[in-house]
Amino acid sequence: xxxxxxxxxxxxxxxxAAIDLVPPPGVDAPEPAYNIAPxxxxxxxxxxxxxxxxxxxxIQVAPAYWGLVPVxxxxxxTEKKFATFNARAERIATSNTFxxxxxxxxxxxxxxxxYQWSGGTPFAFAxxxxxxxxxxxxxxxxxxxxxxxxxxxxITCEPNLALAGLASSMPVILAPEHYARWLDxxxxxxxxxxxxxxxxxxxxxxxxxxxxxxxxxxxxxLGE
Length: 224
What we know:
Layout: E1 5-7, H1 12-18, E2 21-22, E3 33-36, E4 41-47, E5 59-66, E6 86-88, H2 99-104, E7 106-111, E8 113-118, E9 121-127, E10 133-144, E11 147-157, E12 170-171, E13 173-174, H3 179-183, E14 202-206
Parallel strand pairs: 2-5, 5-11, 6-11
Antiparallel strand pairs: 1-3, 1-8, 4-5, 4-7, 7-10, 8-9, 9-14, 10-11, 10-13, 11-12
């Protein structure tokens, strides 16, 4: 399960160096956040649907709620009792909750790393070769209380050796050369991308225990 992650400052130039992003005009890049939990609004990267600031199918950044709400959900969000912030890779193609987004709503979730707990101790995991990374994600636009509402889930897979013994799953971390392929919904069988990243892509260290409280924020939570 991936229930917390962090994102240092990433400039528009850094985003564009990794993927052909069209930034929103006159808007600064998203601010860093060091304790991102389900229920937060998070910037995702996706192919733009109709009616957005970017041309249709261009890659844009958009705020989305972490906890995917499928398009068929019509009740108030407070009535939703099932967790959808993670989507297991092996089930997304057949899941009633995630299959629609898998076919039509793939996204990237920019991050600088994620947290995992072991015996009550939080550990931070960050990339070894790049300053930031992207999780594979799914996004969906639902109608909640008469308003359109963009939501997303992070796809998880079996853990690699870096997380063995700590977790039963880990976020799917995509190589930069696969970003465009994952976003291309004409690619109907991208399952080869949804696997654990090599263990040497990640480094780990004990994080500040304060990260356990979702109200705590700040770079000190990383514990470096």
